[in-house]
Amino acid sequence: MQNRRRYVRIAVAAFLLVFVVAGLSRISFNVDILKLLPVGLRQVQGLSLMLKEFVSDNELIITVEAPTAEAAEANADAIAAKLAGMPKLVKRAYSKPPWEKDGGQLSELLAFLVLNQPPDKVRALTERLSAEKAPGTLRETLDKLSESMNPQEIALLGYDPYDISGSAVGSLMSGGGGEQNKFASADGKFHIIIVEAAGTKDGKFANYNEAIAWVDAVQRATAEWQGRDGCRLGYTGEPAITGSIAGSMQHDMQESGVVTLVVIALIFYFCYRRFRPLLELQGMLLLVFAVALAIAGLFLSQLTVIGVGSSAIMIGLSVDYGYFIYQRAQRFRGTVRELQSQCLRYIVWTAGTTGAAFFALNVSSLPGLSHLGNLVGIGVIVGAVVMLTVYAPLVLRRSQREGDAPPSLVERAVLSPRFHRAGAWFTIGLVVVLLAGLAWKGVPANDFSDRALRPRHSEAYDALDRMTAKLSDQADPLNLLIEGDSVEVVLARLCDVEKQLAAAQSRGEVVSFRSALPLWPDAASQRENLPLLASLANEAPRLRQAALDAGFKEDAFMLMENLLKQWSAWAQRTPPIWPDNDASRWVLQRLAHHDGDHWYAMGFVQPAPGREDALLDKISGDGVYLTGWKLLSLELRRAIPQEFVHAIVGIVVVVLALLIFAFRDARSIGLFVGVTLLVFACLLGAMSLFGMTWNFFNLAALLLLLGTGTDYSILLLLALRRNGGDVPGARKELFVVICLCACSASAGFGSISWANHLGLASLGQTCALGLLLDAAISLFLIPPLWTWLHRHDPATG
Amino acid sequence: MFTRSLFLSLMLFAGHAVAADTPDLAPIKRWLAKQDELRTLQADFAQTRSYKNLRDPLAAPGHIWYSAPGSFRWEVGDPAKTVVLRKAENYYVITPAKKRAERTPSAALGQPGNARRMPMMDFPFAKNFEDFNRKFETLAVATTGKRCHLELLPRDPQAKNALSAIRIDFDTETGHLIAFEFVTKDGSSMRNEFSNVRINQKIDALQFDYDFTGYEVIDAK
Fold it and tell me: What's the pLDDT score for residue B15?
């Protein structure tokens, strides 16, 4: 029998080991902040599509900031040249648009723009080039060269005597705004270099570790420029941001877990002064942590930046059951099973309500919070099971082996009436201050901006902000993303949206806009234009001679010659035709994309200040997304608080129903409701005084406090009822345990207050603050209030 | 920026102006000091545009009117084929033959790197020596008799990318502008030789006005 039990234990341990190793090996981080947001929201869908289709995973941006424009440009060029000479590390490195090295490459794009014009314009163009009209066309060009005050026109016409580019470039310029290809700031002191990684598969790194290693290698290769000529380098773009977030996630997870374990150890040792039980408790917590994380690894998807906070929270909450069992095991004379059954009710109640509150986070459409809720919910249940089945026998045997330990100094001190009087007065003072703070400063402000989604410290984000400030002429432009399952569908949508935008501009809702329409192939126009344009190749000698006769030199015909060659080459192809040389691809990759059966076009809209929301309703349609971080905030502000209200009402109804069932006493229920309201009022006051705000993530604290913080008052009320209103008895039974639980849970939440992710940190701060207030008000104010409420009741005297 | 950079890049870049030793800037200081007294200016000019890809330069006559602090009119052709007018907060580039005017806010035009700005639209070139130094890098100063010749480069990086030199000739005694020229990186140039310069004479306010009746006035993109 003994041997059989041993084999079962060994088998369970072996299974656990395999389970934990398998689970932990599958844990991975998802650094996409949009994965924290509700996928059903239009803004989230649009932004996710934009990031997926138009942001290159393997493109690093190096920013070079110098005291002079010359230094910035020279150093940016030198860095790009060095990186371009490292083919194993870097596929391409640009400090200038590729066409600046070879202007001739642009003739393909210009040929495409003309080919894509409406057929009537192309017919008019070919007519202007006819034998009869060509001399007149050339005279017009000479007049413009003589009189024009437009530098761009003058620069072009010298190389384009037939003014082929005029209408095509005009269509490209017509939208205005949308300056997307800048490599330097207006003052020239800020430059960027775009670096494409070598050796990635389909333009993607295998994992974030590979991205981090590559960014590190580029940083090492360019380190010598840091500080040279006063230059300051920054690194941003997708691989740098991915690396930065993943690194901080790992750090947050490890640091918060370790800090929580250390704080719990200190609290336990301070209270009980015993080392071996402390080590056993820490071992249990590590087991809980490993098993819960293994379950998450095997059954849940990747860990998000919010999910990493779960380790500290689950440790901080699971330890509650360990404290309770340890406290009960002291001076316990029964069997393990009897101890387990005594503890079961308490643990089922607290684990049930806590787990339910965390699982209730699934009602939130924020996947980050649901993820956190599931992880902590699993952790709490695993914690309850581990503490009851493994820790209870362990701690009882030790207690019975070592005999009764005298109450520690702390235990004796906290149970003295003097301590409770002082505590009650302190709590009353604190409540008065916090309520005065609430009355003075009002409820905390809302901050539903995208700030809560961002990391607190990130060099990659800092560099990105700096780059946006230096290179963007426009404040907060909106992204216009259009998708469709064919080139034609996208073109039709582009035309519709262009009309909607023009109408919005005439109403003053849009300052400027640029869609991909001029660069999107119009197969029908191309089919009609191509024979006309291709046939011009036969006219090349006549056109050249006419230009020479008009006073132009041979070089002035070079562009025209390239255009004619290009149209002639395309004559063999079937529209839709896309330009595909290096310069064209460079321009198009930021405006058009093809992924499997889907086509995507990108554009930009500069809304009139304060009109962003109005635009959302007017610029819409199937496959049309007008997105921006500001619009995302507006959409989240509408959706998230409402769903939390629903969840909170739901949990309040459930808790009250359970309390009515458990207490069947109006005074107890009234006391619980009053204390809970007081805790929340004090929390609001504390948040206002500390300058904290509500965001999408710390709103969940209200839900969690209802599930975890209220346990303290409920348990104390139950103990008071069980002890027939004997306040000292109830305190002796629960005061130390509740103190330890509150401190540990607060340590768990508090340890994520310094998390790099601001949303997670705010959740940690709000919960830690709420739990401490809940514990203080419950422990010090419920007993005197209970006594006062039951002063005329002889049975509970 | 994209289209600007794209198509300006079609030009083949030529050599760079040769830098001289640190020039003596005293004549510039004296010239700019005289500008303090400038209230109005009227002059005729002969404009010569030389293009790298044209066999012969293109010449046209023109007139300039300026009244401090900000009224400006520049006409090319006789009769005027292009008029640049600074009126209130806007610049207008007017093409009378087409009954068309393009309006650009002066503030936008003054931004560094604005591609719609011709160097002479910044007249007067500087408020004082500090302003001059902020706008231009002086490559050379040569004085022959009463004529001082300046060889400059704009400090605005975008303009510097497109231009290889700005040349100004002025009379050291009167401070009158004699010639103004800019040379692009591909070797093309636009030179304006001034004559009949009249300083601080009354200019009819109507000169800085324009009747846009029947004109299509559009905002420049």
Answer: 31
Residues 6 or more apart in contact with residue B127 via CB below 8 angstroms: B35
Q: Is the pLDDT of residue B32 over 60?
A: yes
Q: With an 8 Å Cβ cutoff, are B158 and A99 in contact?
A: no
Residues A234 and A74: beta-carbon distance below 8 Å = no
B95, B111, B116: residue with CB nearest A186: B111
pLDDT at position B73, please? Answer: 92
Q: How confident is the model at residue A301 (pLDDT cuts 50, 70, 90)?
A: low
Kindly list the residues from chain B whose CB atom is less than 8 angstroms away from the CB atom of residue A172.
3
At residue B121 the predicted structure's pLDDT band, cuts being 50, 70 and 90, is low
Place of tokens 């500290």: A312
| CB contact at 8 A, A591 and A112 | no
The answer for A 152-211 residues in CB contact with B (under 8 A) is: 152, 154-156, 158-161, 165, 169, 172-176, 178-182, 184, 186-188
- CA of B203 vs chain A CAs: smallest distance (Å): 24
Among the partner-chain residues A73, A100, A159, the one whose CB lies closest to the CB of B53 is A159
d(CA B80, CA B95): 8
Average pLDDT value for chain A: 84
Q: Which among A155, A184, A587 has the least Cβ separation from residue B7?
A: A155
Query: Which range is most confident: A302-316, A614-628, A737-751?
Result: A737-751
Position A735: which residue type? F
Select A1-30+273-406's CATH number: 3.30.1300.10, 1.20.1640.10, 1.10.1740.10, 3.40.630.30: 1.20.1640.10
pLDDT of residue B105: 81
**Is B53 at the interface with chain A, CB within 8 A?**
yes
Contact A159 B10 (CB under 8 A): yes
Residue B97 forms contact with A (CB below 8 Å): no
Interface of B with A in 122-151 (CB under 8 A): none
Per-residue pLDDT tens for B137-151?
899 999 998 999 999
Domains of chain A, by residue range, sit at 1-30+273-406, 104-178+474-631, 416-442+635-740+759-797
Other CB atoms within a 10 A radius of the CB of residue A372 amount to: 30
Q: How far is A701 from chain B (nearest CA, A)?
A: 47
Helix ranges, A68-133 (H)? 69-84, 106-115, 119-128
* Per-residue confidence (pLDDT) for residue A529, from 0 to 100: 93
Q: Do B82 and A147 lie within an 8 Å CB cutoff?
A: yes
- In the chain, the amino acid numbered A732 is K
Searching chain B, which residue's CA lies closest to the CA of residue A72? Answer: B157
Which residues from chain A sit within 8 angstroms of residue B77, using beta carbons?
A: 146-147
Phi first, then psi: give them for residue A55, nearest 5 degrees: -105, 120
- pLDDT bin (cut points 50, 70, 90) of residue A468 is confident
Give the SS3 label for residue A696: coil
Give the pLDDT score at A306. Answer: 66
Segment B122-134 shows an average pLDDT of 81
CB of A502 within 8 Å of any CB in chain B?
no
Q: Which one of A427-436, B21-30, B68-77, B92-101 scores highest in mean pLDDT?
A: A427-436
CATH of domain A416-442+635-740+759-797: 1.20.1640.10
Six token digits for residue A409 = 């100094």
* CA dist list (Å): A666 to A189, A719, A790: 72, 17, 12
Chain A residue with minimum CA distance to B119: A151
The answer to whether the CB atoms of B54 and A553 lie below 8 A apart is yes
Q: Which residues of B touch A142 (CB under 8 A)?
A: 54, 58
B2-219 maps to CATH 2.60.120.1440: no
- Here the ipTM equals 0.83
Query: Across-strand partners of A599?
Result: A484, A594
Domain segments of chain B: what residues?
2-219
**Structural tokens at position A618:** 């007017």
> Fold identical between A1-30+273-406 and A416-442+635-740+759-797?
yes
Determine the residue of chain B that is closest to A168 in CA distance: B3
